[in-house]
Design a protein that fits this description.
Helix content is 14%, strand content 12%. The chain is of the alpha+beta class and 64 residues long. The two termini are 30 Å apart.
């Protein structure tokens, strides 16, 4: 027997999530960025790099 429980929180019960990113070789919270760096961070584009060898059957980076 499985019972699904849905947890719901009010906005005042929620905790903000702090986002960190790597800058110049070390990690910093995005909240500590100046206005220019925050703008640059928002414009970043993320990508997923394909496997180096599509013939390698043991490749662990295939799309899951």
């Amino acid at each position: 027997m499985t019972t699904e429980t849905t947890i719901s929180l009010k906005d005042e019960e929620r905790q903000p999530c702090e986002v960190w990113t790597r800058v110049m070789g070390y990690h910093r919270p995005v909240s500590a960025f100046n206005a220019g760096k925050k703008s640059e961070h928002e414009e970043r584009q993320f990508f997923k790099e394909p496997c180096a060898s599509t013939l390698n059957q043991d490749c662990t980076c295939r799309n899951e």
